[in-house]
Amino acid sequence: MNKVEKVLIGVFGLGICVYLAHCIKRGMIYGFSGELLSYFTYPIFSEYGLILALSVIGLITVFIVHAILKRKKRKAVGITRADKIWFAVSFLPITLDVLYGLYGAIAGIDFLWSKCYGFEGFILAAVFGGILIIPVLPLCIIWQIIYLTGRHKAKKAEKELSL
């Protein structure tokens, strides 16, 4: 990794540490009454939640760019096992959103002054869950496009070699 990537990882890591420190501070103020994990579920729609979201997105971006540049330097055309794993992992956010939608359909979701079940609960939960993971979705889609074009190039190169 070059110096810029290391600095960016440090800055984004510091953002995650700021979020965790705020959660611990909240726990100390309230005396850590109840479950400890509840203090680390600070709302994502706050200034500290925004710092966490931007830091995580930044870290993912740095790692993806590093992998792409490393691959470009060695002029690799083939698809590695790590590429296949990352391709599978890139479907995780949308899968979690659908599962949260199903949970909202079965258990219900509070919206305004009522509780919605069934199709309405699914749609509300999927939309609200999607709002939380929307910053991650473009990165996943970009990775999927990179993977599919790389796989296409690898198959094309393999086909030319076999002829």
Q: Beta-strand level of the residues, as a percent range? A: under 5%
Order of helices and strands: HHHHEEHH
Annotation field: number of helices: 6
> Rough shape?
flat
Specify the helix fraction band.
over 70%
Largest sheet properties: 2 strands, antiparallel
Q: Residue ranges: pLDDT <50 for 5 or more in a row?
A: none
CA-atom Rg in angstroms:
21 Å
Counting helices, strands and paired strands, the structural category is: mainly alpha
Distance between the termini: 38 Å
Q: Helix and strand layout, with pairings?
A:
Elements: H1 3-29, H2 47-73, H3 81-89, H4 92-107, E1 109-111, E2 114-116, H5 118-133, H6 137-162
Antiparallel strand pairs: 1-2
Q: What are the salient characteristics of this protein?
A:
two-stranded antiparallel sheet; 2 strands; 163 residues
Care to describe what's here?
Helices cover 74% and strands 4% of the residues. With 163 residues, it is mostly helical. A two-stranded antiparallel sheet has the order 1-2. A hairpin with a 2-residue loop joins strand 1 (109-111) and strand 2. The longest helix is centred in the first third of the chain and has 27 residues, at 3-29. It is flat. The mean pLDDT is 79.
Question: What's the short version?
Answer:
This protein is mainly α. The chain contains 6 helices and 2 strands, in the order H-H-H-H-E-E-H-H.
